[in-house]
Design a protein that fits this description.
The chain is of the alpha/beta class. It folds into two domains: 180 residues, Glycogen Phosphorylase B (Rossmann fold, 3-Layer(aba) Sandwich); 231 residues, Sandwich (Immunoglobulin-like), CATH 2.60.40.1180. Helices cover 38% and strands 15% of the residues. The chain has a six-stranded parallel β-sheet with strand order 5-4-3-6-7-8, with helices on both faces. A five-stranded antiparallel β-sheet has the order 9-10-11-15-13. It is elongated, with a radius of gyration of 37 Å. The termini are far apart.
């Protein structure tokens, strides 16, 4: 079919969107076929996910059987008359004329059948005239436009015996779900979405878009009202369980997971934000994995290693009573663990931690591994976790400085990418139990950790005034100051901490 004007522009936009998108979601199989036909989109690219409704509002509304009779009386019908409902625009697409032409045939089989037509549109006048021409005006009530979700419309759904959907073209058919939520079966044409999900003789009947077939469907309801009520009960459960927005959102979520190649993955590995569910190292080093050799001088790798060490220091020491590290994070593993599953072809290459990276002397992973070893052993020796509280003594967003005190140690980090802090003054709170002579117990830029420092910035014999502490703090560096006596006693006997190079530690 060819369209011009605004329709042509809409078709052009839709076509470009379908071809640009990696996946297309259609609300019915019929709509999927139309998209494939009109825009030449491959069917494998399109996923069918049905529309939904808030079925509870209809299904769980207060209703008494006697109110059904009252609703019929309001339309001028007898309380025992079977009543059928049409809801939709009075337009050719929705097929109200097909239903109207079917009514004489229905009345021949069931003379007291009644019909309520809800909706407005350009066909209304012609339909009213045609009803009188056919001699069925007494059996038809044109209710006009009734706002969706109102008590009036819900009452009509609750009071009818079935809902008729005689559309010539129906991309989906929300009215089917509304009928089901009210516990009513449907008679729907095969020219649209309902043919995908209406199961004949279980939650309704499928008919052709012609008066004779529609009449047959209505008469099937009239043959056995007990069976019709059973179909309505089955349909109600279907609407509540399969067409609620939670169910639909979950199916839509899976489409995105498929595109990210993480469907069927354990829930906790699914990213919920930047960096969540994947190693931090992947964010800062992932694109530069080819420059992780010890002789490579990639400034982005150097920066990434510095950020990882500072972040590890913060998370470890500012924790509560302990620190836990995911396997592989201690040496900067770049890829998340991914167990064999359908989405990755049941591959096993990412289901194990590649510890050999940390053991390879020619790669910089060893520097992170050694730093983590020092961090844990120094922390245990100086008993950082013994004190349950820490005190932040400096937090400057502009200078990118963070400093705190815990268990008699002073921690200072300069996150700034290039500014060195000279004679940085750190005011210690009154009552802080600190020795006046300290030593650098841990330096994130120690050469054993891949840094370029040759010696501590503060010599062991340096003293500071009570309440005032001054240091030089280079950019992207973290320092830990400990009392001289405690450091010598705790660290002096640790043979691993005395190793002078990373390679010597790997062989220890």
């Amino acid at each position: 079919v060819q369209y011009g004007g605004q329709s042509a522009r809409i078709r052009e936009i839709e076509g470009q969107a379908c071809h640009s998108a990696q996946r297309v979601i259609a609300v019915s199989g019929v709509l999927k076929e139309e998209v494939c036909s009109h825009y030449q989109v491959h069917g494998a690219k399109i996923e069918v996910i049905y529309n939904g409704i808030h079925a509870d509002a209809i299904a769980k509304m207060e209703w008494e059987d006697e109110w059904t009779g009252n609703t019929k009386k309001d339309k001028g019908f007898d309380v025992m008359d079977p009543m059928f409902l049409f809801v939709g625009r009075l337009a050719v697409q929705k097929g109200p004329d097909l239903l109207l032409e079917a009514i004489p045939m229905i009345l021949q089989a069931r003379g007291n059948a009644k019909f309520v037509i809800v909706g407005d549109g350009h066909m209304k006048g012609a339909l009213e005239s045609r009803a009188h021409q056919l001699g069925v005006g007494h059996a038809v009530s044109f209710a006009g436009s009734v706002k969706s979700g109102t008590a009036h419309l819900k009452a009509l759904f609750k009071s009818c015996d079935a809902v008729v959907v005689p559309s010539r073209n129906e991309p989906f058919g929300i009215v089917v779900l509304e009928a089901w939520a009210a516990g009513k079966p449907v008679i729907a044409t095969t020219c649209g979405g309902p043919r995908d999900f209406v199961r004949p003789d279980r939650d309704g009947y499928l008919v052709d878009p012609d008066p004779g077939s529609i009449a047959w469907g209505v008469c099937k309801i009239c043959e056995n009202f007990e069976h019709a009520r059973w179909m309505g009960a089955v349909a109600k459960e279907k609407a509540l369980n399969e067409f609620n927005w939670t169910f639909i959102a979950r199916k839509t979520e899976q489409i995105y997971y498929e595109q990210m190649d993480i469907h069927d993955a354990p829930k906790f590995t699914v990213p919920r934000g930047p960096g969540v569910g994947a190693p931090l190292a992947q964010q800062v080093l992932g694109q530069h994995r080819g420059a992780m050799g010890v002789l490579d001088n990639n400034h982005l790798v150097i920066r990434g290693l510095q950020l990882l060490k500072m972040s590890r220091l913060v998370s470890s020491v500012l924790g509560c009573d302990a620190s836990m590290t995911w396997m592989g994070s201690e040496f900067g593993v770049l890829d998340p663990i991914d167990f064999p599953r359908a989405a990755n072809g049941y591959k096993k290459d990412k289901c194990a931690v590649p510890y050999k990276l940390a053991e390879t002397t020619g790669l910089k992973y060893k520097h992170l591994d050694i730093f983590d070893l020092f961090l844990n052993r120094v922390g245990a020796a100086l008993q950082w976790y013994k004190s349950p509280k820490y005190t932040i003594v400096a937090a400057d967003e502009e200078k990118k400085i963070l400093a705190w005190v815990r268990s008699g140690c002073i921690f200072a980090i300069n996150f700034h990418p290039h500014d060195e802090q000279t004679d940085l003054r750190i005011d210690l709170p009154k009552g802080t139990d600190l020795a006046r002579e300290v030593v650098v117990a841990l330096d994130t830029e120690d050469p054993r950790f891949g840094g370029e420092k040759e010696e501590p910035l503060l010599k062991p014999t340096t003293k500071f005034n009570t309440g005032l502490f001054k240091i030089n703090l280079p950019p992207r560096t973290g320092l830990v100051f400990a009392p001289v006596e405690a450091a010598e006693k705790a660290l002096g006997s640790d043979k691993l901490l005395k190793c002078e190079t990373a390679d010597a530690l790997l062989g220890a």
